[in-house]
Amino acid sequence: xxxxxxxxxxxxxxxxxxxxxxxxxxxxxxxxxxxxxxxxxxxxxxxxxxxxxxxxxxxxxxxxxxxxxxxxxxxxxxxxxxxxxxxxxxxxxxxxxxxxxxxxxxxxxxxxxxxxxxxxxxxxxxxxxxxxxxxxxxxxxxxxxxxxxxxxxxxxxxxxxxxxxxxxxxxxxxxxxxxxxxxxxxxxxxxxxxxxxxxxxxxxxxxxxxxxxxxxxxxxxxxxxxxxxxxxxxxxxxxxxxxxxxxxxxxxxxxxxxxxxxxxxxxxxxxxxxxxxxxxxxxxxxxxxxxxxxxxxxxxxxxx
Length: 304
Description:
alpha+beta, Jelly Rolls, 8-stranded antiparallel sheet, 7 helices, 19% strand
């Protein structure tokens, strides 16, 4: 569906002004969108994931760990596929107000792509460098968005999501490969140097707030300098008529599941080209490991 087609449908949760802002600027912050009952369930599930993580000694398919992670002082960066690790996470994406909010932005037929639970641990939880999402998992159109849920209050010291308004309209998209053809998962230094810091918007908000950004949106987040950790539960959802060009490297069992509405009989193709990722058939860890150059198997290709 096109933005005009989506905007012509009466919204369920968002105001028309909020929807127009999303399509115009590429992002939206919805404060206190999630009821306390859901937050309680999600916090409990997240505490359980942290406890399980104490027993993990090195990064694996579920846990991505900071280098100084220890059982007595856990420092997690990510839990991959949280919907497969605890039932509360799948219940949340299928039953909470989050789904109707996303439907107001992608259309009434909503498809699941993947989920992740990112952490910025207290006192130095790592930054995420400037990047955009769609070339990690390219689709036939640019409806995919990522919606984040703040499980606790998030202020500037907690390393909030930062976005560059209107950057989702940049065409052609910048590369996320380095000069030698190696995938870095982030914009190069020249591109970042041209970002005006005064134009960056940091999406701070109280617990239960949602951050929503388009798959082409340039975004980053600073390190967590506070004494409190900042978990951010993330789901990537798409319109039903968006189909992936590549195999999902995370391989979630719910990939392509329709969670609202019905399946699309036709694919919608956006005419703008999309940068393709490297071949991750051998496995994929996380954006943290990629950007911090911890990957032992960086993929070199000719795609720039």
